[in-house]
């Protein structure tokens, strides 16, 4: 709880090992949103929505709407 900088650093290291991993990217968006970086979280989700592999996942749309309401 609360150490968003450390969580982002760990998430970044994981993404370096597994670039474009949708689960890690969703985690990144959640961390960013919790840290008050809503526009960054929206950008991550919009990137996932543009990805043909995962962009049709309805949960991504739900997250986008959640972040846009913040």
List the helices and strands and how they pair.
Layout: H1 4-17, H2 22-34, H3 38-50, H4 58-68
Helix pairs in contact: 1-2, 2-3, 3-4
Largest sheet: none
Q: Please give the share of residues in helix.
A: over 70%
**Count the strands?**
0
The span between the termini is: 19 Å
Indicate the proportion of strand residues.
under 5%
Poorly predicted runs are: none
Radius of gyration: 12 Å
The oligomeric status of these chains comes to: single chain
Which secondary-structure class do the elements indicate?
Answer: mainly alpha
Give the overall average pLDDT: 95
Spell out the helices and strands N to C: HHHH
The shape, in one word, is: flat
Total of DSSP H or I helical runs spanning 4+ residues: 4
What structural keywords apply?
70 residues, mainly alpha, single chain
Describe the structure.
This protein has helices at 4-17, 22-34, 38-50, 58-68. The mean pLDDT is 95. The protein has 4 helices and no strands. With 70 residues, the protein is mainly alpha-helical. 19% of the residues are buried.
Task: Describe the structure concisely for a colleague.
Helices cover 73% and strands 0% of the residues. With 70 residues, it is an all-alpha fold.
